[in-house]
Design a protein that fits this description.
Helix content: over 70%
Low-confidence stretches: none
Shape: globular
Radius of gyration: 17 Å
Distance between the termini: 47 Å
Mean pLDDT: 91
Number of domains: 1
Largest sheet: none
């Protein structure tokens, strides 16, 4: 019963649509109706401005961190596999939120929060990869995809997380983030992807 409750809690926590709620409360806008129509931090920066974008980013990361700490506490007598499943369910909740008609974000910020709670060292290196790629290209999508691609290898080779559970978990989360960016990948190949410009005015 504890496992079921942990999974349900993880999903509802992940389903909190930070971008949608803050956009409506603070700006009277549904961020999913503008820009990339994605309920994530990047589109919030573009549509709602820096301050709201930062709030969305912090909240989305916090969902992942909180999920990991609470799941570890609730499932401390269970296998680590159940903690990983709760983490994955939290990310899926962000992508398919019950509180926002199952139209959420791409899961990058929440996945970062999960790994900050699960394996901070791996998360920090992925953040570094993200920042380097972003600073060079100014493409948030490319930076996110790059960090997702390198995640399983960092975990496996640098931190020796070679158990089957970790290998599968890292691979699935990496694949989930990449698949969520399939439209961005098409735009990147076509040269149509929009670069992030923090100096641009919000819509």
């Amino acid at each position: 019963m504890t496992i079921v409750f942990a999974f349900v809690f993880a999903y509802f926590l992940g389903s909190i649509p930070s971008a949608v709620w803050l956009g409506k409360w603070l700006h009277g806008k549904d961020v999913r109706e503008f820009g990339s129509k994605n309920a994530g931090a990047t589109n919030s920066f573009r549509i709602l401005g820096k301050r709201t974008g930062i709030l969305v980013l912090i909240m989305d990361i916090s969902k992942g961190v909180l999920c990991m700490f609470i799941s570890k506490y609730m499932l401390q007598e269970e296998s680590v596999v159940f903690v990983m499943l709760a983490a994955g369910i939290c990310i899926l909740g962000h992508v398919f939120p019950v509180f926002a008609q199952f139209r959420g974000g791409k899961g990058v910020a929440t996945a970062l929060g999960v790994f900050l709670g699960l394996n901070p060292s791996t998360a920090l290196i992925c953040m570094l990869v993200f920042l380097v790629v972003f600073m060079v290209s100014r493409y948030v999508s490319l930076a996110s995809i790059s960090a997702a691609c390198i995640l399983p290898f960092i975990s496996y080779f640098l931190f020796n997380q070679q158990s089957l559970a970790f290998v599968w978990f890292n691979a699935i989360i990496s694949l989930l983030v990449i698949v969520a960016h399939h439209k961005n990948i098409k735009r990147l190949i076509a040269g149509e992807e929009q670069r992030m410009n923090f100096n641009a005015s919000k819509m």
